[in-house]
Amino acid sequence: MEKTLIQRAGTRIFSINFDFTSGEQNEILQYLQANAYRLMGYKGATGTNQITSGVPAWFAIDYSNMFGMVDIDYEPEYKVYVFNKSMIAPNTTIQMQALSQEIPLGTAVSFHPNGSFSIRGTAPEGVITVRNERPLGTPDLTIGLAARVDGQFLPFCAFTSNAQGQVSVEPNENIVLFAAQTNMREGTVTSNALAPGCEFMFSDKNTDYDLQMIQGTYGITNAPGGAFVDKVSSGQSLRELLNR
Questions:
Q1: CA 110 to CA 164: how far, in whole Å?
Q2: Which are the contacts of 175, defined by CB distance < 8 A and separation ≥ 6?
Q3: pLDDT value, residue 1
Q4: Is the pLDDT reported for residue 6 higher than 70?
């Protein structure tokens, strides 16, 4: 495993960027700060037994922590997490009660009854499979992946796993952002966009997205000259947006 991690030491970095130094953008920022807005970010994944209640927020950043040039950096690196609950309603906050070491895509992992993980082989390209080795009859679990954003591994997807069962997870680079007046935090399960925002996909061609806030609606769009993003309307299903 150490050899694999050394081989991945030059992982590409993707960036989400805001510039609040201009007059209009700074004025919008002051409003967002005064009214307790957070920037909510979501990342896509598909797989077996994905929870139906929504998608865990990948990050939730208070606008009160922002000023000037804001860069949110993402590296496509992953860890497996396990949460000891399986009934996940909207607004449940996922807790990573067990967290693996960094796991490359294309790897098969076992989760053991004592909360530890081990590598057990290979998985299809672009996929991480997790086998739940807990004894038959023990309660179902929630299993998912955490991805590195701004140096932290945070959960972005969630799947139900029964004892002696297996889930296969394939992350993708679909991203949804919106600004909302909310006390939700990273890991909080959200079914629909709470406010207008944007969606886009990271790729080898588009590794950086320069964005700006929209006056009046407080939606999000691309900055002039930046890579184009699509509009997201309040109420749209996050699972549908992210799993395409």
A1: 10
A2: 16, 41, 42, 43, 44, 199, 200, 201, 202, 209
A3: 26
A4: no
